[in-house]
Amino acid sequence: MPDENEPSSNQELNSWKEIASHLERGVRTVQRWESELGLPVRRTGRGKRGAVYALVSELDLWRVTSGAVVGKELGPGSERAAGSAVEESRRLMTNIQSMVQSVSMTTVRQRQQAQALQKRLDEMRRRLRKTG
To answer: Does the residue 101 lie in any domain?
Structure first.
């Protein structure tokens, strides 16, 4: 028999407090997760201060797929762990972007060098044909 206090998967949570309670975190944490990690929260009004709601099924899917650290079994400091994971992801993305730019610049340089070598080879072949 289902627990009456347990939300059904298609239930709507109609406030930050209800959403935070479902995720077993504070209101500020889930608001930060919305802005930084894409927590699926919808707004009924306009602007950032409008009323919010979320579907339990979407929150549960997000919890499983987002990589965010969420759950009762986590001890103190787990919110910091999630925050440091976001910081680490940003640092890694910056490194990746730097590497992509470096590879792109190297590729352009190599193409230019290959074209210059091809011109030299063509010139050498023309000279050999003239002498041979």
So the answer is: no
